Amino acid sequence: MSRSPFGPSEEELRANLAGEASADAALTLHDADLAAAEREIEPTGPEVPRDLTAAAFFDVDNTMVQGASIVHFARGLAARKYFKTSDLVDVAWKQIKFRVTGKENSTDMASGREKALAFIAGRPTAELAALGEEIYDEIIADKIWPGTRALAQMHLDAGQQVWLVTATPVELAQVIAKRLGLTGALGTVAESVDGKFTGRLVGDILHGLGKAHAVRTLAIREGLNLKRCTAYSDSHNDVPMLSLVGTAVAINPDSDLREVAKNRSWEIRDFRTGRKAAKIGVPTALALGAAGGAVAAAITRHRDH
């Protein structure tokens, strides 16, 4: 059957599929981690009152993590002889090209996707997650931007969900989220059968429109009001995601995103130098959100008494 020329393009269909698959995987991994934590950890005190309709969404590369998370993971895998150093150089070079131009090269993306899928085909999903935990502790833990981490904690303290949104495989993204104490992660979903990767993606790499669709899908399933949500990113490619929410914040922005942020009066945070970071205060909307969480906590305590 032919599709209407006025309908969604093939790229949009793949992005939508990737977004929905990412939301499914994110919630599944989150529920599994939550169940495991409840079995292992005894409650230690009163919980922060939950703000059920607000959440924060953080891009990962150069927003939460200094550099590209997939390159950091690739370094760890290369050290373990999972693939050749030349492959690591290739991945790093493509990331450098992307950071310099700010644009995604379709040939580079296709090549990187094929190499990554060839690497994981037939491997257990649990193996990738376990390797991710080791590599996070060895390499990534020291590359978290303290300023961005503090913003995420502010949302957590206000009782809000905090999700990472990234093109990195969802299993690895979930490791970062878990280590940081966040709610969970939306990431690229590789197809798996009986606990092993097939070597195919579900939809496409999660980026651009795919990220926006993943956030929208998660919001619907979690009952979130996107107007009360906040999104953070460094990249112009994430404008679709940033445009979905009530509060958008540009973190360490590339030149194109900085221009968009200025034109749309979005908050701009730059943690790349101490001088710049010191000049920028807590965004008003975020401060109000944190205050709202504190008020809710005070009301709850008063009712308890």
SSE layout:
Layout: H1 10-40, E1 55-59, H2 69-79, H3 85-101, H4 106-120, H5 125-140, H6 146-157, E2 161-169, H7 170-180, E3 184-188, E4 190-193, E5 196-201, H8 209-222, E6 230-233, H9 239-242, E7 247-251, H10 255-264, E8 267-269, H11 274-279, H12 284-304
Parallel strand pairs: 1-2, 1-6, 2-3, 6-7, 7-8
Antiparallel strand pairs: 4-5
Report on the architecture of this protein:
There is one protein chain. With 305 residues, the chain is an alpha/beta fold. 55% of the residues lie in helices and 13% in strands. The protein has a six-stranded parallel β-sheet, sandwiched between helices. A two-stranded antiparallel sheet has the order 4-5. A hairpin with a 2-residue loop joins strand 4 and strand 5. Helix 1 packs across helix 7 and helix 6 runs parallel beside helix 12. The longest helix is centred in the first third of the chain and has 31 residues. The termini are far apart. 41% of the residues are buried.
Structure characteristics:
305 residues; alpha/beta; two-stranded antiparallel ribbon; globular
Short description, anyone?
With 305 residues, the protein is α/β, with parallel strands linked by helices. The protein contains 12 helices and 8 strands.
Largest sheet report: 6 strands, parallel
Helix/strand class:
alpha/beta
> Could you give the distance between the termini?
65 Å
Strand sequence of the main sheet, in spatial order? 3-2-1-6-7-8
Helix content: 55-70%
What sequence of helices (H) and strands (E) makes up the elements?
A: HEHHHHHEHEEEHEHEHEHH
Q: Give the strand content.
A: 5-15%
Shape: globular
**Number of DSSP helices?**
12
Evaluate the radius of gyration.
19 Å
Report low-confidence residues grouped into runs of 5 or more.
95-102, 275-285, 291-305
